Amino acid sequence: MNFLAFVLVAVVAAIPAHACKCLDAGGANNVHNTKSCCADLNGSFQDGNDCAADSISERLSNFRSCCQVEGSVTSDCDFPS
């Protein structure tokens, strides 16, 4: 592996994992709904306001649906159609 490729891999590995939140109207994070939906999907609730995306990566659409059922408008995690 050449040095540039090694550096690129190291930088990408150092970037924090994306986290998901339930969002209310206006884009405000609803921590209660985020925590509840994260627990429902057996995700990893982190930093007091995020659900680690990698812990629910196969269920991002379920997370969004859960947020909506709980009363939030949407989530900030994108998922493929």
Q: Could you characterize the architecture of this molecule?
A:
Keywords: Signal. The chain has helices at residues 3-14, 31-40, 60-69, and strands spanning 19-20, 22-23, 45-46, 50-52, 74-75. By secondary structure, it is of the alpha+beta class. It has a domain at 20-75. It has a three-stranded antiparallel β-sheet with strand order 1-4-3. A hairpin with a 3-residue loop joins strand 3 and strand 4 (50-52). The longest helix has 12 residues, at 3-14. The model is unreliable at 4-17 (pLDDT under 50).
Q: What topology does this entry show?
A:
Blueprint: H1 3-14, E1 19-20, E2 22-23, H2 31-40, E3 45-46, E4 50-52, H3 60-69, E5 74-75
Quickly list its features.
81 residues, alpha+beta, 3-stranded antiparallel β-sheet, globular
The average pLDDT value, as a whole number, equals 83
What is the percent of helical residues?
Answer: 25-40%
How many individual helices?
A: 3
SSE-based structural type: alpha+beta
Distance between the termini: 35 Å
Strand content: 5-15%
- The order of strands across the largest sheet is 1-4-3
Q: Tell the overall outline.
A: globular
Number of strands: 5
* Helix and strand element order: HEEHEEHE
Please give the largest β-sheet. 3 strands, antiparallel
Unreliable spans are 4-17
Radius of gyration: 15 Å
Protein name: Extracellular membrane protein CFEM domain-containing protein
Keywords: Signal
